[in-house]
Amino acid sequence: MLAIRLRRMGNRNSPFYRVVVSDSRRVPRSSAIEELGHYHPSGTLKGVDIDLERLNYWVDRGAKPSPTVLRLVKQQAKGGLAQTEAVETPAAEAVTAEEPTAEAQAAAAETEADSSTEAETGESEAVETETETETEAEGS
Predict the structure, then answer these.
(1) H helix or E strand, kind and range, residue 11
(2) How many Cα atoms within 13 Å fall on the side-chain side of residue 104?
(3) Cα gap 66→73, rounded to integer Å
(4) How confident is the model over 128-137, as pLDDT tens digits?
(5) CB-based contacts of 38: which residues, under 8 Å, 6+ apart?
(6) Which H, E and C letters describe 61-99, residue by residue?
(7) Residue 59 CB coordination number (10 Å)
(8) pLDDT tens string 28-61
(9) Contact 66, 4 (CB under 8 A)
(10) pTM of the model as a whole
C-alpha cells in the first residue's frame, strides 16, 4: 500500500519536510516513489508548497495521505499557509536598506575629507604622530 507522508530533513532544531509518496511498509527515510512538495514550519522560507495535481493522481491510484498531509493540503487550499516565500527579518532589512543613515553619510564625508587633505599636503597622520612623540620626549 502507498502512503503520502512527510519526510523530515534539515539540521537539528531547524527542520523542514518533504511531502513524499512511498511504500507504507517502509521507514519514512527510505527511498520515495515521488516527491510532491515541501513544508517549512519555521525559518526564512515559512510555508507549504504541494503539487495538488500529483497528489490527486496518487490518491486516485490508492495512496493514503497521512492526517498531517491532509491538514497541510486543506490549509494550502484555503490560503492559511502561504506558498513558500522568503520572510523578511529585521536583520535582512538593515542589510538591504537603500538609503544610508545620516550617521553613515557623515562618516563617509569625513573619511573623504581626510583623504583629500592628505593628498593635498602629501603628509599622513603617521608622520604627524611621530613628530608629536618626539616633541613630548624632548620636553620631559
Answers:
(1) strand 2-11
(2) 6
(3) 11
(4) 555 555 656 6
(5) 16, 17, 18, 19, 48, 49, 50, 84
(6) CCCEECHHHHHHHHHHHHCCCCCCCCCCCHHHHHHCCCC
(7) 15
(8) 788 889 999 999 988 777 888 999 999 999 999 9
(9) yes
(10) 0.55
